[in-house]
Amino acid sequence: MNRLSLTQEFSVPYKYEVFFTENLFEKENTLFKDFIVNFGNKDYQKKVLFVVDEFVAKSHKNLTSQIVAYFNHENFAELMPEILVLEGGENCKNDPRYYEEVIRAINEHGIDRHSFVACIGGGALLDMVGYAAGISHRGVKLIRIPTTVLSQNDSGVGVKNAVNYLGKKNFLGTFAPPVAVFNDMQFLESLGERDLRGGLAEAIKVALIKDIEFFKWIIAHIEELIAGNKRVMQEQIFRCAQLHLQHIASGDPFETGSARPLDFGHWAAHKLEYLSDFQIRHGEAVAIGICLDTLYSYLKGYISQKEAEGVVYLFQDLGFATFHSALAENDKINLFNGLNEFREHLGGQLTITLLEKIGKGFEVHEIDFDLMKKAVDLLEELSQ
Amino acid sequence: MNRLSLTQEFSVPYKYEVFFTENLFEKENTLFKDFIVNFGNKDYQKKVLFVVDEFVAKSHKNLTSQIVAYFNHENFAELMPEILVLEGGENCKNDPRYYEEVIRAINEHGIDRHSFVACIGGGALLDMVGYAAGISHRGVKLIRIPTTVLSQNDSGVGVKNAVNYLGKKNFLGTFAPPVAVFNDMQFLESLGERDLRGGLAEAIKVALIKDIEFFKWIIAHIEELIAGNKRVMQEQIFRCAQLHLQHIASGDPFETGSARPLDFGHWAAHKLEYLSDFQIRHGEAVAIGICLDTLYSYLKGYISQKEAEGVVYLFQDLGFATFHSALAENDKINLFNGLNEFREHLGGQLTITLLEKIGKGFEVHEIDFDLMKKAVDLLEELSQ
Ligand SMILES: NC(=O)c1ccc[n+]([C@@H]2O[C@H](COP(=O)([O-])OP(=O)(O)OC[C@H]3O[C@@H](n4cnc5c(N)ncnc54)[C@H](O)[C@@H]3O)[C@@H](O)[C@H]2O)c1
Ligand SMILES: NC(=O)c1ccc[n+]([C@@H]2O[C@H](COP(=O)([O-])OP(=O)(O)OC[C@H]3O[C@@H](n4cnc5c(N)ncnc54)[C@H](O)[C@@H]3O)[C@@H](O)[C@H]2O)c1
Ligand SMILES: [Zn+2]
Ligand SMILES: [Zn+2]
């Protein structure tokens, strides 16, 4: 009896679409309605609970009444009478009361595993609401409607959600793909300069590790990107989202291994967000993190000084600050604690992505602290 | 631009083994060690954090010291110095402080996605610890070591975990398969009569809906099962676990549809657990729930009166109470609220499994309340 065993083996398929559109809730735009109607059981009247980012609601004053009108128009699904408007930004991931509030609403409105929670907001709100939806009834259906450049080109199209806990970024979370993503360009118009710019950091990230042509394209369109040119911004978002999606599907979607190339520049970024008490945003922190790991790639001899500096200058041309004083505090020990936390979060070996060349990332499992300190110093110099 | 979209599609594979053994942590038994050593990256020193059911620790006094000795013996992995001993039973799923405590320990001991949380306990503790492990870092590795009949033959081998929330059973949870399950017969020896018996309800459940031979086998072994005969108990657990595993793998493991045949008898069971303030255990509630839906199947004309009564008498022969006063309270309205909660939890259409014949379940989407009231009355009669 000692070696008796049964083996369990199965695969779980996932499929979702990322739509690119404008004016999602104008009556003429049937994209959202068509999706809901055609999803799953057609005979069953579906419920939709909306959660909206406060800043989005403030700057698109007609949004909630537009949603109500959109549902009234054809009565294709049951809109929950309560539309939750919640503070967006990192605070909604830091304070458990926010996801508890979403869970309360899921319960009160009887949102079940065949009903939808539709979240309209930045990456932080999407992460938090996705977490609440992911653990309620072991997962109710999530529709993401990202409203920042970063969430449209990166976080909103992926499979992860999370909240911060015990002072650690994304400590609690689940892998829970959405059932659909609607990227509506219209929302980006109310973004401030910082958030328009912030998302470009993730585009540069994915370009640097995966696609030199896209990197060159970004450099060729700096002016339009700064100005928020709609057509160029749209192309940037589409290409970046595509690279992210391809990467997730071709790799290890639920990250059972240690590899996480899409986290290029993120070990320092995550730590910086905390060290700055979330005064710098995710994209801004990622910009600095990329510069750091790019310079380290140069100091390690993988890429040339010119190439590395070119990356730093690109960020600066786009208006990013490429240094933050917290990087150097406490003789960089605070920063380096981030390496260990990053390893713990991923698990297993430390795995850091560096640049083999522009357009191609690769992984290392050790970081030379002295050299990384030099990279910090070099970055400080280049940023003066 | 209006219909531009990208489609994301991938599958996530899962695989785990359910081992049947005795004296798992005796030095000579290398099953556990072999599993850890061969799992994933062999070069990486793995951490294991244990969480143990208080009743198990109390009745197997040497357990923790045996675990320490087992790890010291060959140093195949890093045992976390703190072995959490937590209250088992439904209360650990009702009170959020328990999973918060597990998450605290996961954080403090730096358990990462390549480290293990090993839980030794009944179905309730396994569910709660599985939930804590499932949301920490989006899922650290879970090893289940079930210590009740019910958890060895049913809950412990499956893919679900959960805690209760907002007064609702399993309201929060995730689908998160374990990396391994170790069913150690030795643990069952300290079980009280109620828990030895309770697990048999799940065996009868799966037999009734899937395997008439197994059903006949149970009837032929009533005496040995009551007496806790080791060989017979082991066979019961093995066959039942096998049926559960097959069912999960052949169907819809993460329950994206509405079908849940394994929940035969459970709509009433879940409600009864609450109505009795958890004075009756899951298996005991399931026994009553099965009797109810079996009688309803008879009243609907699917099975004969004799077959239906035979099921009730089988439970009675095994020592189960087949009625509970809460079933009839408030003119059965309390009970029927459970139907709606059950639908909500599953989502979509109400889906209830009935018996087409002994050994074969099938699904209906409507319940005739008057007839169900009759089934309650009939069950009360038969139980006097
Ligand atoms: N899940 C993932 O895979 C993943 C990947 C990358 C980043 N993230 C997370 O995403 C978050 C960052 O997201 P973000 O960059 O979108 O920032 P954000 O969500 O923090 O939003 C920034 C600010 O802009 C506001 N805002 C959002 N949309 C607006 C609009 N259209 N008009 C005006 N104001 C608007 C928000 O209320 C907030 O105050 C971080 O928490 C990060 O960890 C997650
Ligand atoms: N995840 C699933 O798929 C699934 C399926 C079925 C049931 N469940 C859940 O499982 C739970 C019931 O599990 P259970 O029947 O194992 O009961 P339990 O976990 O509630 O345990 C009953 C009692 O026995 C004690 N105990 C456990 N092992 C013991 C041992 N070896 N010796 C002495 N005492 C011991 C416990 O401390 C507890 O007090 C319910 O919460 C139910 O919802 C989950
Ligand atoms: Zn990022
Ligand atoms: Zn059960």
Characterise the protein shown here.
Chains A, B: This is 3-dehydroquinate synthase. Chains A, B: Pfam families: DHQ_synthase, DHQS_C. Helix content of chain A is 48%, strand content 19%. Chain A is α/β, with parallel strands linked by helices. In chain A, strands 1, 2, 3, 4, 5, 6 and 9 form a seven-stranded parallel beta sheet that branches. In chain A, strands 7-8 form a two-stranded antiparallel sheet. The interface between A and B is large, with 74 and 74 residues.
> Strand percentage of chain A, roughly?
15-25%
Give the % helix of chain A. Answer: 40-55%
SS field, number of helical segments of chain A: 17
Hey, which two chains have the biggest interface?
A-B, 74 and 74 residues
Order of helices and strands of chain A: EHEHHEEHHEHEHEEEHHHHHHHHHEEH
What does the average pLDDT of chain A come to?
93
Euclidean distance between termini CA atoms of chain A: 71 Å
> For the report, how would you describe the main beta sheet of chain A?
7 strands, parallel
CATH class of the largest domain in chain A: Mainly Alpha
**CATH homologous superfamily designation of the largest domain in chain A:** Dehydroquinate synthase-like - alpha domain
Rg from alpha-carbon coordinates of chain A = 21 Å
Hetero groups in this structure are: nicotinamide-adenine-dinucleotide, zinc ion
Oligomeric state of the chains present here? homodimer
Outline the low-pLDDT stretches of chain A.
none
